[in-house]
Amino acid sequence: MAYDPTVLADWQIAAEAEKGMPSPAEWRRRLGLKEDEVLPYGRVAKLDSRRILNRRHARPAGKYIEITAITPTPLGEGKTTTTLGLIEGLARRGMDAGGAIRQPSGGPSMNIKGTAAGGGNALLIPMTEFTMGLTGDIDALTNAHNLALVALTARLHHEANYTDEGLAKRGLKRLDIDPRRVEMKWALDFCAQALRQIVIGLGGKENGVPMESGFQISVSSELMAILAIAHDLGDLRARVGEMTVAYDKRGNPITCDDLEVGGAMAAWMRNALHPTLCATVEYQPVLVHAGPFANIAVGQSSILADRVGLALWDYHVTESGFGADIGFEKFWNVKCRLSGLAPQVSVITATIRALKMHGGGPRVVPGKPLPKAYQEEGLALVERGVANLLHHIAIVRKSGVNPVVCINRFPTDTDAEVGLVRRHVEAAGARCAVGEHWRRGGEGALELADAVIEAGEEPAEFRFLYPPEMPLRQRVDRIAREVYGADGVSWAPAAEEKAKAFESDPRFRDYATMMVKTHLSLSHDPDRKGVPTGWVLPIRDVLLFSGARFLCPVAGTIALMPGTGSDPAFRRIDVDAETGEVRGLF
């Protein structure tokens, strides 16, 4: 039975669907899992990936389906909705299907964008738990991240107050940390622009060493990158220990293991390594693991979740962040290289709304009503905006993966608008399906499911954009030209100096390239819509993630701590004092 999403809010649909949600014990029976492979957490469960993969490693892997999108409006175009709808549609076609999505950050959930649970009849349940912490992965990550800063600032304090002899009596040796070269900021999983830049250690020597500091949103932490790519607990522990927290006064890195905190950080995250099992409103299995923000982070559901899903069901649908220029590019050239997995199909989520924006439509502002142009037929805007969609199809094709376009249909979209997009997509030689899963659930995703099944049966010749031995600056140039459509790259002097140093040091030759760029444009400028031409990508810095083993070129101006808008979601969220039911989530 499909719910009426024009009458019921998402939290109300979730409340109804959760009445029939499988229990952890039911999931164990349904998925053929052993008792010690399922770790119940209230209404949901974590899955012990090590035990499952050890037992089922010989099973043929399922079809690997990736979900991406065109360049979105600030509201998002429904990748998670499409992910869940496709799983429901595949199940309606009799396929054994499941998926993996990312855990939402408290920042967007309490701000303007809302949760990342999908919507309507393509919704993840239990929605409230999913949106508000789930099984505590992000809390564990935040604690582990901040523990590194606790260790650093405590060490600075002790080194400032004790001689070498005094430190030795306390079992410490002087690390000679440079307080001006601290690489990490404190973590908080909300959008708090007031905490981007702060000063700590004020009030006298008992309160630590005065220094500039700041906060980043938790899901941008290097620990989230490590969680997304770690193969097991040993891999996670080793990577955490290698994270660079600061530099000493001679320019040498100070790692978590140098501060003797890597083990404790990994201990905080030990349970976060297990994916959490949730469900669609039609009760198909969905794993939740790792986090969002592909513009400043990995933005992928985890390698472990994908490996478990491929071992458990015949079609595994995984989610990448934002458009194909960011989320798919990282999936393609970083995640797949590290996992050894290759997808058969990539679904590009598109909306008429976003195409109109790229065709010159009015500015879309989160928290404000959509302009009239987005609520009435506008074929000219769609015609001009289709170029952005065709560019994303071309990006996916460069990987050798079969693209399928899903038009995530909104109630205001007209048949003429949808037909126009379909004609352009099919003329470009790609499959196109209209998805009405928001309104009709799996029944509304049958056309999409059929297109994905067909595409998945065709051969895919997966290939990377660049070889692993390619130097950093050449990689960035290739990504800029062939993925973003830039004419080239310009390097700020400090960024180029860093890049040259990384290129000349053999320790960094196998580091992945993790671009940091706005998601709101193919370019570095969020105001340039469509397919910008005649521009150069400016790189202003290169961040080092030595635990994840990433080099992160930063394009344009982008903050690791987003800000909260003037009309945030938390104004409309409340709890029923009698039942404890949370209302107002969207």
TrEMBL record:
The gene is fhs. Coiled coil: none annotated. ATP binds at residues 73-80. Pathway: One-carbon metabolism; tetrahydrofolate interconversion. Keywords: ATP-binding, Ligase, Nucleotide-binding, One-carbon metabolism. The keyword ATP-binding applies. NCBIfam families: PRK13507.1. SUPFAM superfamilies: P-loop containing nucleoside triphosphate hydrolases. One of its GO terms (molecular function) is ATP binding. Belongs to the formate--tetrahydrofolate ligase family. It catalyses: (6S)-5,6,7,8-tetrahydrofolate + formate + ATP = (6R)-10-formyltetrahydrofolate + ADP + phosphate. Pfam families: FTHFS. This is Formate--tetrahydrofolate ligase. It comes from the Bacteria.
